[in-house]
Inverse folding.
């Protein structure tokens, strides 16, 4: 019997799950089911990241995207709680618009995918196991966020090396931006009513 | 392991076999813990309430109560309510169970004894553990019952409240260690109990209790058992479940108890390094003989699991001692007390590490383990990578 390449098997499995449930999102008309299918799609994309040895990105995918979908799911449950299986109907114009946007994105992605030269040429066969491929990637990411680019060491070209600056400024701008958003959200969400004299149930 | 086995059998079989063995071991660990701790819970709660607890099945102490429960639950009818969304109703318990089982993949039980050693182990654990809430929300929604829906909504509120302080509390030991790799964090605490991160400085000691509070909240147990709340919501999100699916929810709950306990042990209580370094006294290292290293790891495994069991027993004790909080009290506990406390402890621990790099009271010999191991860090030490200059450009030496 031929040797089974588990890496390829799992890649195909995760890719199929991801694509299949992506189609299911479009086909379904129940908000909560859609959110659930979206979770499965995003989760299997995280699986693909883990398969590629990018465990940090995979965990971020799970935490940010899948966790973010949780909020979507909760809102879906809350909004459709009265009539549990409410269905969302999409009009004809929405279908046309969505097809144009989705189709053009698909064309761009396909064009980009088929322009990779290595795919048609000779393939590089990885003989090392997945365990050996995992390197401390998060250390490099973390250090570049505080302004140290360790991948400078791998860059051979002296002139390019000078341009490889860290992401400290970007990181700071995003942090301050998020802080502003948080403060704004707290300001908008704060209770505007006067304190009541008698205890009320409104806290619940 | 797979490389070793592939000398005898084809590599692809060895690879799959090793994967199955690891998964089987983790599943066995989780199920045995569930069985033991359902019994412990009954016994401890009975003693706290001045009762005897199970005494009938299997001798004086009711040892066979968990299998008896299991058989009873297996034989019960598997009901799906008429109003339920049948597919989600059936699948929800498995989501809870699988996410809990997945977490064990990244948790080490001894030096190097981990199914998948991840560079960002703790981040992975947090990311996966946060997914368990999906099962609860799905169960609450799909049951078609308002009690279940209330339970699910409470769970969602609770998750949003405890996840932030929990993550912030876990940043402190990660910052002290300088790595997110759980195996390295465990090894850094080798030696006497004074090397445990909980005794590293006063701030880690306080932040452990923040973590513990959030950990109890994440297991949905009293005083944070609002999603179930037997006296208010029948059984919360589990109201419509019966038989084996209900049992699976319970397995997930006890499994997540073990997860948070293991995490507490690894991050704060020295992982597999005991209060007394017995393995060091005996000289059990891989340098001596591979079998000696194996024996040391076996002792470490027992050490780690015993400490985790003590932690789980404390969680059981807490459940039977404290009354349930209201939902606004849960939010106040998490947002008003735990978050600022965790943030202050993070700052404190940072300043402490800066002021006393080698530790003040106890000198930690294992410190600097991570930086010696990491190539990147040694590159920085040797000055190969320079800090950014004033102009924002970086130089190459």
């Amino acid at each position: 019997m031929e040797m089974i390449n588990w890496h390829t098997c799992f890649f195909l499995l995760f890719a199929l799950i991801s694509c299949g449930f992506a189609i299911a999102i479009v086909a379904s008309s129940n908000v909560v089911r859609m959110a659930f299918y979206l979770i499965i799609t995003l989760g299997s994309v995280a699986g693909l990241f883990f398969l590629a040895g990018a465990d940090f990105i995979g965990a971020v995918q799970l935490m940010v995207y899948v966790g973010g979908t949780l909020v979507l799911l909760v809102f879906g449950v809350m909004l459709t709680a009265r009539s549990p299986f409410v269905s969302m109907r999409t009009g004809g114009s929405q279908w046309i618009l969505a097809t144009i946007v989705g189709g053009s994105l698909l064309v761009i992605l396909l064009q980009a995918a088929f322009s990779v030269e290595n795919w048609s040429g000779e393939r590089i066969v990885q003989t090392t196991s997945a365990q050996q491929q995992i390197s401390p990637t998060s250390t490099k990411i973390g250090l570049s966020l505080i302004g140290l680019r360790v991948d400078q060491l791998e860059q051979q070209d002296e002139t390019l090396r000078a341009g490889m600056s860290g992401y400290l400024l970007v990181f700071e701008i995003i942090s301050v931006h998020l802080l502003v958003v948080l403060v704004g959200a707290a300001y908008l969400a704060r209770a505007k009513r006067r304190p009541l004299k008698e205890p009320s149930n409104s806290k619940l | 392991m797979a490389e070793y086995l592939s000398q005898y059998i084809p590599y692809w079989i060895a690879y799959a076999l090793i994967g199955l063995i690891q998964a089987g071991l983790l599943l066995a660990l989780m199920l045995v813990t569930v069985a033991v701790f359902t019994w412990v819970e009954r016994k401890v709660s009975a003693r706290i309430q001045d009762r005897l607890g199970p005494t009938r099945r299997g001798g004086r102490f009711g040892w066979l109560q968990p299998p008896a429960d299991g058989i009873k639950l297996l034989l019960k009818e598997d009901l799906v309510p008429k109003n339920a969304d049948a597919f989600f109703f059936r699948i929800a318990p498995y989501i809870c169970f699988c996410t809990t089982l997945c977490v064990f993949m990244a948790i080490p039980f001894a030096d190097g004894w981990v199914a998948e050693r991840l560079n960002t182990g703790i981040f992975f654990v947090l990311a996966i553990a946060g997914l368990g809430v999906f099962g609860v929300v799905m169960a609450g929604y799909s049951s078609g019952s308002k009690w279940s829906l209330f339970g699910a909504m409470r769970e969602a509120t609770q998750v949003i409240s405890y996840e932030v302080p929990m993550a912030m509390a876990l940043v402190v030991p990660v910052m002290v260690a300088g790595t997110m790799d759980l195996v390295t964090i465990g090894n850094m605490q080798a030696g006497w109990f004074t090397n445990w991160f909980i005794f590293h400085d006063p701030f880690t000691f306080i932040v452990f209790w923040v973590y513990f509070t959030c950990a109890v909240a994440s297991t949905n147990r009293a005083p944070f058992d609002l999603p179930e709340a037997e006296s208010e919501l029948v059984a919360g999100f589990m109201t419509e479940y019966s038989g084996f699916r209900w049992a699976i929810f319970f397995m997930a709950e006890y499994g997540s108890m073990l997860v948070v306990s293991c995490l507490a042990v690894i991050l704060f209580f020295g992982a597999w390094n005991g209060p007394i370094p017995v393995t060091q006294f005996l000289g059990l290292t891989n340098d001596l003989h591979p079998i000696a290293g194996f024996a040391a790891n076996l002792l470490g495994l027992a050490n780690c699991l015993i400490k985790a069991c003590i932690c789980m027993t404390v969680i059981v004790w807490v459940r039977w001692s404290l009354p349930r909080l209201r939902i606004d009290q849960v939010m106040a506990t998490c947002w008003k007390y735990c978050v600022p406390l965790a943030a202050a402890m993070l700052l404190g621990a940072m300043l402490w590490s800066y002021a006393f790099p080698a530790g003040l009271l106890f000198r930690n010999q294992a410190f600097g383990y991570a930086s010696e191991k990491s190539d990147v860090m040694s590159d920085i030490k040797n000055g190969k990578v320079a800090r950014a200059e004033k102009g924002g450009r970086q130089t190459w030496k």
